[in-house]
Amino acid sequence: MRKINRDKEKQISLRIDEKFKLFQEEIGIHFKQVKLLKQAFTHSSYVNEHRKKPHADNERLEFLGDAVLELTVSQFLYNKYPTMSEGKLTKLRAAIVCEPSLVTFANDLKFGDLVLLGKGEELTGGRTRPALLADVFEAFIGALFLDQGLETVISVLEKVVFPKINAGAFSHVMDYKSQLQEFIQKDASGALEYTVLQERGPAHNREFVSRVTLNGAELGMGTGRSKKEAEQHAAQVALSKLKSPVSE
Asked: Among 66, 135, 147, 231, which one carries the catalytic annotation?
């Protein structure tokens, strides 16, 4: 009976090893210390059920990863938005590193498939529990930092997190109109004017097209589900154009 149990445990261990091997291949990063990678995905409930083997849960790595995320996201925002105030940068960073956002990043990388859980946690849906997935994402960042350094962490964020920022996923906490006003005031005079050019689509699924101009010259156009959203998008487009280096 003991031999059967040992064989079963060995098979499970091999399957786990294979999962982590495939994961590393998928993300194009191979850990020097695979033990660190596994620890990032090890929930305390798994440790409690496997006391015969020395396992460490991911809570300390989560603590470290939280700090690393704050630093790397702060650096990205600081460089991306040179005219944004400290208060607005803080608000935006909070939206990026909050639990719902971290869960999205974890799901994009299919972290739920890799988490090591105890039977009880597994049965109660721990694999899809938001708080658990958010913790795992932070722990993974912590493990990656220890094993590979800050540059590799940034390379992962450039694939998973930063594109979402660039695409406006956190625009609900962004005020592009205020940013554009601040930017214009530094180098130009005149008043910005927003005009709704078009309303299209059925009443329940309306889309607005807005244009922003400065002294009659068009700076940008944007679309949105409301006039306000379309104006914000137009301001975002204008800022992107104004901050881009002029091609020769």
From this structure: 66
More confident residue, 85 or 214: 214
Residues 238 and 208 in one domain: yes
Domain extent at residue 64: 2-172
Active site residue 57: no
- Residue 138 falls in the annotated catalytic set: yes
Query: If you average pLDDT over every residue of the chain, what do you get?
Result: 87
Q: Which of 57, 62, 121, 138 is catalytic?
A: 138
Number of compact structural domains in the chain: 2
Could you give the C-alpha distances from 88 to 74, 79, 149, 223, in angstroms and in order? 12, 14, 29, 24
Q: Are residues 145 and 185 in the same domain?
A: no
* Whole-number Å distance between alpha carbons of 2 and 25: 35
DSSP β-ladder status, 207-214 and 192-200: antiparallel
Residue 248 in domain? no
- How far is Cα 26 from Cα 16, in angstroms, rounded to an integer? 15
Residues 179 and 165 in one domain: no
Share of the chain above pLDDT 70, in %: 91
For the entire predicted model, the pTM comes to 0.71
